[in-house]
Amino acid sequence: MDQLHANGAAPAAQTDTPLILALPKGRILSELGPLLRHTGIAPAADFHDEDSRRLRFETNHPGLDVVRVRPFDVATFVAHGGAHIGICGGDVLMEFDYAEIYAPLDLGIGRCRVSVAEPKEIAGQEDPTRWSRISVATKYPNIAQRHYAARGIQAEVVHLNGAMELAPSLGLSRVIVDLVQTGSTLKANGLVETDVIATITSRLIVNRTALKTRPEEIGGWIARFRAALEAISA
User: Fold this and answer.
1) CB–CB of 115/185 below 8 Å?
2) Residue 234: HSE in the Cβ half-sphere, 13 Å Cα cutoff
3) What is the rounded CA–CA span in Å between residue 145 and residue 150?
4) Residue 179 to residue 160: CA distance in whole angstroms
5) Rounded to the nearest 5 degrees, what angle is found at the Cα of 154, between the Cα atoms of 98 and 191?
6) pLDDT by residue (tens digit) across 112-141?
7) For strand 154-159 and strand 133-138, is the pairing parallel, antiparallel, or unpaired?
8) Which residues are paired to 68 by β-bridges?
9) Among 75, 77, 169, 220, which one is least packed by beta carbons within 10 Å?
């Protein structure tokens, strides 16, 4: 089966219901272009139109539709069965840790890191091993709490969905935990990276129940993505 799909044959549809592939909006989606082309997936023309109000799009494969959602929501769509397959950052998988998700492939795109950052003027002035608690602004409360709990520190989390870099200067937190790519936003806001929690790439994820109930179709798409990765890296 893998050889057939690797050579370009689309997975045969086994039901009248198309598989749903959840793709993230924004930066990762732009990096996905070459991989999708090598996989043989061509969404409808308005998929790449930022002004399109549609969220679900047909593809050149009758048995596959794609949905375009926020990067932080891809894992939730897949875990709860709203989508069967998805492409999701490792940071989101770490934060939610859904048991319903299987992540068979590291796609090697969207490379960045989840890091701790703090104001430049106080960075390094205190010994973190002496802290008993720390205030943290982040959209990753679970990652932050696990990170500091492993060091015997209680993290008091201020949950923000954006503009984390403002939190220390406005007195909301001592540090932030956020996604960092180049570090330029940190620098522009007087922060420095002081600890890397994890290096992040995007993963192909699937719903475990869907994999059991539609193994030929989903297994075929996993094989196509694997073949596409090999073709790109060759």
Assistant:
1) no
2) 8
3) 9
4) 13
5) 90
6) 999 999 999 988 887 877 889 999 999 999
7) parallel
8) 23
9) 169
First to last CA, the chain: 22
Question: Which residue is associated with the tokens 């990765």?
Answer: 229
Q: Distance between CA 209 and CA 140 in Å, rounded?
A: 27
Token representation of residue 211: 């994999």
- Report d(CA 65, CA 44) in Å as an integer: 9
Q: Which residues are CB-neighbours of 82 under 8 A, at least 6 positions away?
A: 20, 22, 67, 76
Contact 87, 204 (CB under 8 A): yes
Count the alpha carbons within 13 Å of 119 in the hemisphere toward its beta carbon: 13
Tell whether pTM > 0.90. Answer: no
CB of 202 closer than 8 Å to CB of 87: yes
Query: Do 220 and 5 contact (CB within 8 A), yes or no?
Result: yes
Contact at 8 Å (CB) between 226 and 1? no
Rounded to 5 degrees, φ, ψ at 45 are: -55, -35
The long-range contacts involving 32-37, CB below 8 angstroms and separated by at least 24 positions, are: 32/87, 32/109, 34/232, 35/107, 35/109, 35/225, 35/228, 35/229, 35/232
Q: Which of 188, 172, 184, 186 is nearest to 118 (CA)?
A: 186
* Mean pLDDT computed over 192-213: 97
Dmax of the chain from CA atoms?
Answer: 62
